[in-house]
TrEMBL record:
Pfam families: LrgA. Signal peptide: none annotated. It is found in: Cell membrane. The chain crosses the membrane at residues 31-51, 63-84, 90-115. This is Holin. It is a multi-pass membrane protein. The keyword Amino-acid biosynthesis does not apply. GO terms for cellular component: plasma membrane. Keywords: Cell membrane, Membrane, Transmembrane, Transmembrane helix. InterPro entries: LrgA/CidA. It comes from the Bacteria.
Protein backbone atom coordinates (compact mmCIF):
# COMPACT_ATOMS: atom_id res chain seq x y z
CA UNK A 1 0.00 0.00 0.00
CA UNK A 2 2.82 2.39 0.89
CA UNK A 3 4.53 1.78 -2.46
CA UNK A 4 1.26 2.47 -4.29
CA UNK A 5 0.80 5.81 -2.52
CA UNK A 6 4.44 6.75 -3.10
CA UNK A 7 4.33 5.94 -6.82
CA UNK A 8 0.99 7.74 -7.20
CA UNK A 9 2.43 10.88 -5.61
CA UNK A 10 5.48 10.66 -7.87
CA UNK A 11 3.29 10.38 -10.97
CA UNK A 12 1.34 13.37 -9.67
CA UNK A 13 4.61 15.32 -9.46
CA UNK A 14 5.25 14.56 -13.15
CA UNK A 15 1.71 15.66 -14.03
CA UNK A 16 2.09 18.92 -12.10
CA UNK A 17 5.46 19.66 -13.73
CA UNK A 18 3.97 18.97 -17.16
CA UNK A 19 0.94 21.17 -16.46
CA UNK A 20 3.00 24.08 -15.12
CA UNK A 21 5.48 23.91 -18.00
CA UNK A 22 2.59 23.76 -20.52
CA UNK A 23 1.17 26.96 -19.00
CA UNK A 24 4.60 28.62 -19.12
CA UNK A 25 5.11 27.55 -22.75
CA UNK A 26 1.67 28.92 -23.67
CA UNK A 27 2.28 32.19 -21.85
CA UNK A 28 5.71 32.73 -23.40
CA UNK A 29 4.53 31.49 -26.82
CA UNK A 30 7.32 28.93 -26.96
CA UNK A 31 7.00 26.42 -29.79
CA UNK A 32 8.38 23.58 -27.64
CA UNK A 33 5.69 21.56 -25.81
CA UNK A 34 5.58 22.11 -22.07
CA UNK A 35 5.98 18.41 -21.39
CA UNK A 36 9.36 18.48 -23.17
CA UNK A 37 10.36 21.59 -21.23
CA UNK A 38 9.30 19.77 -18.07
CA UNK A 39 11.49 16.83 -18.99
CA UNK A 40 14.40 19.21 -19.40
CA UNK A 41 13.62 20.83 -16.06
CA UNK A 42 13.51 17.45 -14.29
CA UNK A 43 16.82 16.52 -15.93
CA UNK A 44 18.48 19.74 -14.77
CA UNK A 45 17.06 19.38 -11.26
CA UNK A 46 18.34 15.80 -11.05
CA UNK A 47 21.79 16.72 -12.40
CA UNK A 48 22.16 19.62 -9.97
CA UNK A 49 20.94 17.37 -7.15
CA UNK A 50 18.11 19.77 -6.27
CA UNK A 51 15.84 16.72 -6.33
CA UNK A 52 16.88 13.13 -5.66
CA UNK A 53 16.25 10.27 -8.05
CA UNK A 54 14.43 8.37 -5.29
CA UNK A 55 11.80 11.12 -5.22
CA UNK A 56 10.70 10.26 -8.77
CA UNK A 57 11.98 6.71 -9.35
CA UNK A 58 8.83 4.64 -8.73
CA UNK A 59 6.56 7.01 -10.63
CA UNK A 60 8.91 7.10 -13.62
CA UNK A 61 9.18 3.30 -13.67
CA UNK A 62 5.38 2.98 -13.63
CA UNK A 63 4.97 5.52 -16.44
CA UNK A 64 7.54 3.68 -18.55
CA UNK A 65 5.95 0.30 -17.84
CA UNK A 66 2.48 1.52 -18.81
CA UNK A 67 3.56 3.67 -21.76
CA UNK A 68 1.75 1.48 -24.29
CA UNK A 69 -1.60 2.39 -22.69
CA UNK A 70 -1.02 6.03 -23.62
CA UNK A 71 -0.79 5.13 -27.32
CA UNK A 72 -3.94 2.98 -27.58
CA UNK A 73 -6.51 5.86 -27.75
CA UNK A 74 -4.76 7.63 -30.66
CA UNK A 75 -4.40 4.32 -32.48
CA UNK A 76 -8.08 3.54 -31.96
CA UNK A 77 -8.96 7.04 -33.17
CA UNK A 78 -7.37 6.26 -36.53
CA UNK A 79 -10.39 4.11 -37.36
CA UNK A 80 -12.29 7.33 -38.07
CA UNK A 81 -9.97 8.03 -41.01
CA UNK A 82 -10.64 4.87 -43.00
CA UNK A 83 -10.54 6.66 -46.38
CA UNK A 84 -7.21 8.28 -45.57
CA UNK A 85 -5.77 4.96 -44.45
CA UNK A 86 -7.00 3.21 -47.60
CA UNK A 87 -5.56 5.91 -49.87
CA UNK A 88 -2.32 6.68 -48.05
CA UNK A 89 -1.92 3.78 -45.61
CA UNK A 90 1.26 2.43 -47.19
CA UNK A 91 2.92 5.84 -47.18
CA UNK A 92 1.90 6.45 -43.57
CA UNK A 93 3.30 3.08 -42.49
CA UNK A 94 6.48 3.75 -44.47
CA UNK A 95 6.98 7.13 -42.78
CA UNK A 96 6.34 5.60 -39.34
CA UNK A 97 8.82 2.77 -39.95
CA UNK A 98 11.52 5.06 -41.38
CA UNK A 99 11.12 7.61 -38.59
CA UNK A 100 11.20 4.86 -35.95
CA UNK A 101 14.41 3.41 -37.38
CA UNK A 102 15.91 6.90 -37.61
CA UNK A 103 15.07 7.65 -33.98
CA UNK A 104 16.50 4.30 -32.87
CA UNK A 105 19.74 4.86 -34.79
CA UNK A 106 20.13 8.42 -33.49
CA UNK A 107 19.40 7.33 -29.91
CA UNK A 108 21.95 4.53 -30.22
CA UNK A 109 24.61 6.85 -31.63
CA UNK A 110 24.02 9.43 -28.91
CA UNK A 111 24.13 6.72 -26.21
CA UNK A 112 27.44 5.43 -27.60
CA UNK A 113 28.81 8.97 -27.83
CA UNK A 114 27.88 9.64 -24.19
CA UNK A 115 29.21 6.27 -22.97
CA UNK A 116 32.53 6.51 -24.85
CA UNK A 117 34.21 9.05 -22.52
CA UNK A 118 33.26 6.90 -19.52
CA UNK A 119 34.91 3.83 -21.08
CA UNK A 120 38.16 5.70 -21.82
CA UNK A 121 38.59 7.05 -18.28
CA UNK A 122 41.13 5.09 -16.21
CA UNK A 123 39.75 3.63 -13.01
Amino acid sequence: MRTFVKSTLQVLIFIIISYVMNRIADTLHVSIPGSILGLGLVFVLLQTKVIKLEWLDLGAKWLLAEMLLFFIPPAAGMIQYKALLLNSGFRIVLVVVISTVLVMVCAGLVAEWIAKPKENKPS
